[in-house]
Amino acid sequence: MSLKEDSENMELAECTKNPGFQDSDGGVSVEQPAEQRLSTVVRLDSEYKQLEPFAGMPKEVLLLYSSQARYRIPREVLFWLTLSCALALVAVTATVIALSPRCLQWWQVSPVYQVYPRSFKDSDGDGVGDLKGIQEQIHHFQYLNIKSVWISPFYRSPMKDFGYDVEDFRDIDPRFGTMKDFDELLAKMHSNGLKLIMDFIPNHTSDRHRWFNLSRTRDPHYEDYYVWTDCNATSQRPNNWVSVFGNSSWTYDEVREQCYLHQFLKEQPDLNFRNLHVRKEIIDILVFWLKKGVDGFRMDAVKHILEASHLRDEPQVDPDKPPELIINEWDLHHDYTTTQLGLHDLLREWRAEMNVYSREPGRYRFMVTESYDYNEVGKTMMYYGTPLVKESDFPFNFYLLDLPQNSSGSWVQHLVNIWMNNMPQGQWPNWVVGNHDKPRIATSVGQGYVRVINMLLLTLPGTPTTYYGEEIGMENINITDSQANVNPVLDPQRAPMQWSGDVNAGFNNKTNITWLPVHPDYKSINVEVQKRDERSVLAQYRFLNTLRQAELALSRGWFCYIHADENVFSFLREFDGLRKAFLVVLNFGKEAAITDLSSVSELPEKLEVLMSTMQASDGRVFHKSGIVTEEGEGLLIQYSTHTRFNPSHPGACYISEKACYLEVVDILYTC
Ligand code: GLC
Ligand code: MG
């Protein structure tokens, strides 16, 4: 007998020990042949159906029981139940994930704070701000609750355009420090939870860049790195194109005996992006800084990157103007020098490269583009990319830079609305009220409006940009003619940061030199003094910025227009699923105003002021039919509501990304 047969026989022998299996003849014989045993089992099936299963029963017996309906049906029911529960769980998880709003990314949470490195803090006392100086002042960003810092260029540069003329994209200008200083600054910023955004200048280099020297001497590899064309050495104008800074955008080069294109200063020759080597060089530079760990780039002057290769004259705005008087940017329609076909492909290429370095959690690399066409907002919006192919996270929104043109609530609403109305759905807005190229708001709009403008900036939806010093209301300095000669681009808004009432406003303390004079008002307008005053511009900036990041309604809620007239602009911020909402009433006019919002049925009758930019109104309770604001006053009113405004006014409200709120179960997903 084989081993297998042996064990089968033993199993059957075991069965016989169970009296339930003893047949009437006294049991199953272990000596029975296989066919006989089978017929015995069949007999068992019919005769012992009523018997209970027992532990250790053989397979054949088990099968007899398991196929009975009373076992089979519950088993199948349990199986299908388990399977459908598992599937339902997967489906619910997937739905929750799909419906949940994304957490805001770092560049959406905090304002972008622009540091102009020459003017922020001078650590070595040479009169020019530097990287070590920025590092010394990291506590200032933390005090303001700022997380994203954009530093204007600090590459090696002859400084004809103060760093926007780059001699070496991989080196730090000695005036600002060393690469070691940069690495330390970046590490220190990261360890303090701050992100560093660099300026990136792809359109041009300095005329002192190695590439330009090789190009003008016709080195075969570099010959076409710039835009060259034949021209007449005396007239120097192969066509009528003009530079952004005025006059012809062509300069004759005596070495190469040709003209090169420069859309900015003649010391800033435009790179030729039709040359694949140039495209590669620029990507390599991006990668160089990405590998260092830089968190984002502000892409400079992007609309100028490509020019039409046919070099035809651009159409004149006034066709009757004599050609020799065509010297300014606004004299021509820039059909051939801006926004050329292929430009967006370049930006997508850069975005794709940045995405490669964005994969680790928390390491998203941010891109903002600098491009502005006041009358062609659609062109600016294209820098958001498409839903499938992304470009920048946002193009800078410069519309509020036009705020000084007209002091009225309706004007401000108009400027805000240009962006909100044209921004592609689901994109993230942003607001710039000042930068190194524009007069400071305290000077252009007036010191009396600094607070209300900061309140606007910090209560609108989207990312605000704050130019250094706007948080304390710094003003433009007066530049004398002799100083203006040193700098072709007048920059009274680039004066040293006013840290304290000490010598040189605390910008440096080792010498008496500062590259631009400190504003004489620094004794009263400085960080130190304002830190001690809880009603200062600085304290209000800090309060609003902190509140904005803490309150969902302000950071990512609905934005709805409520009212606009010659003085007041009013809007509200609310969030699906939250009772807490905010009404903002801002007086940009030239007089006090009483605003009647009684027709807004969603607002409660009584409105209590959470914060006013003017002391007198703090904590005041207004009836909604008479909200009083002084000239230049901003009110932030917090209220509780059961009826939200946005569902019944879809045309007046905007949101970038809806929050996941299930009314029935009152579940609000928050990050
Ligand atoms: C941008 C900068 C400006 C610079 C120009 C050329 O517009 O903001 O300061 O002069 O680009 O790089
Ligand atoms: Mg160019």
TrEMBL record:
Main localisation, per the record?
A: membrane
Q: Does the keyword Cell membrane apply?
A: yes
User: What superkingdom heads the lineage?
Assistant: Eukaryota
Its placement in the membrane is given as:
Single-pass type II membrane protein
GO terms for cellular component: apical plasma membrane
Q: List each coiled-coil range.
A: none
InterPro entries the record matches: GH, GH13_cat_dom, Glyco_hydro_b, O16G_dom_2
Pfam families (UniProt xref): Alpha-amylase
Residue ranges of the TM segments: 77-99
Q: Which residues form the Glycosyl hydrolase family 13 catalytic domain?
A: 114-519
Q: Give the UniProt keywords, A-Z.
A: Amino-acid transport, Cell membrane, Disulfide bond, Glycoprotein, Membrane, Phosphoprotein, Signal-anchor, Transmembrane, Transmembrane helix, Transport
Biological-process GO terms, alphabetical: amino acid transport; carbohydrate metabolic process
Can you say where in the cell this protein is located? Answer: Apical cell membrane
Whom does it interact with, and what assembly results? Disulfide-linked heterodimer composed of the catalytic light subunit SLC7A9 and the heavy subunit SLC3A1. The heterodimer is the minimal functional unit. Assembles in non-covalently linked heterotetramers (dimers of heterodimers) and higher order oligomers; the oligomerization is mediated by SLC3A1 likely to prevent degradation in the endoplasmic reticulum and facilitate heteromer trafficking to the plasma membrane. Disulfide-linked heterodimer composed of the catalytic light subunit SLC7A13 and the heavy subunit SLC3A1.
Q: Which PANTHER family does the entry mention?
A: ALPHA-AMYLASE FAMILY MEMBER, NEUTRAL AND BASIC AMINO ACID TRANSPORT PROTEIN RBAT
Q: What is this protein called?
A: Amino acid transporter heavy chain SLC3A1
The protein's organism comes out as Gouania willdenowi
